[in-house]
Records
---
Amino acid sequence: MMELFQEHTLSALQTLLQQARKIAVLGHTHPDGDALGSTTGLALYLQRMGKDVTCLYPDTPPEHLDFIQHPSVPFLCYDTAPSAAQKCIGEAELIFLVDANAFSRTDALGPFAQEARVPKVLLDHHLNPDSGSFDLVFSTPEISSASEVVYWLLKALSQEDLPVDIGSVLMAGMTTDTNNFANSVFPSTFRMASELIAAGVDRDALLQKIYNSYRENRVRLLGYMQYRELHILPEGAAYMVMTKDILHRFDVHEGESEGLVNMPLAIGSVRMSILLKEEDSYFRVSIRSKKGTSAQNCAQQYFHGGGHENAAGGKLFIGADIARPEEAPAYLERVLKAFLA
Ligand SMILES: [Mn+2]
């Protein structure tokens, strides 16, 4: 973790911050708890420095994570406010990308950010950062979450404890990305949690909001998928396909199938689990694996994606990778057998 914050990169960041008044903080497509926590925590801190900060997301965050978005932090989503989002990036004097390894992870926002002739800073924890597109890079996969990267960075910048509201959103982001301390946890992660609880962050309240505040349909959807739609291959793979029909039937909102892909890993013989979710021209692919099997390699080889060693994602294009949506299971079985052979 220490190499993340070398003296000269920290002071280079201080200089960039002194020179900028308007700052855009970009999060990735389909923002999750870590994307929201890390961008919101950073934005709150920058606001306290007197900056004019806006968070930008390619699409609207799921409603059950609304509590992470602090009321004093303005944000724009490209799906509902494309021209305002574009204008905001155009006017920014400094751009942050947080919790993503490249601007391509911000879909339509990416080209505007890439073209902007202002300094750009990357804060991330995914593999293969696109370092060439940034003036400063703070990125390591040896850290639990982007929220944790932001936590240690802000502590290094301010040299003191963070206010509880900033600590709370960072704790929320870290908790969701580690699946409540189940994966990608390092000694520094427990240190962060311990410091934040000591500083007054209400972890119990956060856990209620993150894990026990869903609509009834989520619980029924998860039950249905595991009972009816879970396929297990003898090679040690499990997969589920959430078709448009299922998404409509259960009225699934963004974020409501969160965590489903992890569940088949509870089976001893399953080394890797894949969840496909149908969109208009492609399936969104989520992959989780146990130690020793690489979700990242599978995402890269077969699904135009990447991520972390044991948690990755990508896309399966209808019309390119497969001709029709109905062919998704056959494609999955073919590549999973090849990958796990
Ligand atoms: Mn993350």
Note: Residues 34, 99, 145-146, 177 surround manganese (II) ion (CB under 6 Å).
---
Amino acid sequence: MTIMTILGSPRRYGNTAQVLEWIEEALRAEGHRIDRANIWEHQIGHCKESHQCRYPQSAACGTPDDAAKLFERVLDADRVLIASPVFSWGFPAPMKALLDRFYCLSGYHQDPDHAILLEDKPIGLMMTCGGDETENYEILSRVYRNMMAFFGARELGFWLIPRATTPEALGDDVRRSAAEFAARLAAD
Ligand SMILES: Cc1cc2nc3c(=O)[nH]c(=O)nc-3n(C[C@H](O)[C@H](O)[C@H](O)COP(=O)(O)O)c2cc1C
């Protein structure tokens, strides 16, 4: 299957990129195709609540930037993995902007007949953070669950890697867990 991975870190070779590479490596070894997007290489504007994506519905919105092209790749992929560092108990600004813009692809509570373009799309989330699991896991797993429900997407799993310092210090345990998480992403 094709798995689109979206790297939300500004660091092309940082902690998140390292763990993501291990996940991608394990997926490729199982014969899956990876379609990687590095979010910081794309221009993603903010959602301005124009609602132009709603009437008529489309994956494109009124902001002319790279989001529509990324949406096409999201819709084409069998599965999606968002990989991001934790910034201020949430996502770095460009990643947050893209997730806000997923509004184009999700349902619309004021119009129950509105199609949900992300309906049942399997989406996973992997995040690295500098702090402890206790201070980050609860809030971020809740954000993940709520986002998936709002998008109408299917939860593939959330994996948080705490106490990340440098890519070199991540160690064999994280590498093994990356292979396990990859298997979970690709499972039926
Ligand atoms: C602006 C900024 C905000 C951060 N906010 C948090 C935070 O809220 N909680 C946390 O545990 N770590 C936080 N961190 C640490 C990063 O999440 C951590 O270093 C992460 O592994 C960086 O990933 P990267 O190397 O892929 O960019 C923050 C780091 C930065 C630069």
Note: Residues 2-186 form a domain with the Rossmann fold fold (CATH 3.40.50.360).
